[in-house]
Amino acid sequence: MGVGIDISDRVKAQEEIKYTTEQLRQLTAHLQEIREEENALQGRYMMNWDNNLLLLKWMWCGLIKNGRCCSPVKQKLNNIIGLLDSSNLSIRKILNELRMGILDHYNAVEALRVQGQQFSDNTGIKLEFDAPEAELQADELTATCLYRVYQKSNHQIVAG
Predict the structure, then answer these.
(1) Which domain holds residue 138?
(2) pLDDT tens readout for residues 55-107
(3) Where a domain ends, among 47, 80, 99?
(4) In a designed cystine with 39, which of 63, 98, 124, 140 is the match (CB 3.0 to 4.6 A)?
(5) pLDDT tens for each residue of 13-43
(6) Contact 115/68 with Cβ under 8 angstroms?
(7) More confident residue, 52 or 136
């Protein structure tokens, strides 16, 4: 005499869960890839703005250096130059948020260290990044995700 339990439904359900989980993982990776491509495109547009503002600054500086302006006009041009400098700084911060060019030049661990140093420089908050000396072997998508999580966690510290 024996007892048999049919677990085929359970096995089938587990296989469906594995399949669905893999599909979700692939979809998430694809969405992240699209998001990064959009960020890179927006970054190129922002870089054009940055270049245009820099060109305007050089033009205003040229007017001031020529000395053909009266004192009130020079003061206004100096104010405009200050606004242009502020705008360029803002654009560079946005560019840093949109596309992490840092990952094009550094491995993941070095990029995280640089991001931490930039955070400390910008906020005055001392941040220590500790990672094993062995280089983290991460593909581009994983490195991007790690960098984004680290970047967002730094923003949360400031915000909150």
Answers:
(1) 101-160
(2) 888 887 777 777 666 778 778 888 888 888 888 888 877 877 776 667 777 77
(3) 99
(4) 98
(5) 999 999 999 999 999 888 888 887 887 788 7
(6) no
(7) 52
Residues 111 and 157 in one domain: yes
Q: Provide the domain count of the chain.
A: 2
Where does residue 124 fall: left (phi above 0), alpha (psi -120 to 50 degrees), or beta otherwise?
left
In a domain, 1, yes or no: no
Nearest partner of 54 among 31, 85, 26, 95, judged by Cα: 85
Specify the DSSP element, H or E, that contains 157. helix 140-159
Q: Which two tokens stand for residue 9?
A: 């439904």
- Confidence band for 140, pLDDT divided at 50, 70 and 90: confident
pTM: 0.53
Please check whether residues 91 and 106 belong to one and the same domain: no
Residue 81, burial from CB neighbour count under 10 angstroms (0-12, 13-18, 19+): middle
What is the Cα–Cα distance from 53 to 83, expressed in whole angstroms?
10
Query: In 3-state terms, what secondary structure has residue 95?
Result: helix
Residues 136 and 83 in one domain: no
Residue type, 1: M
DSSP helix/strand/coil, 69: coil
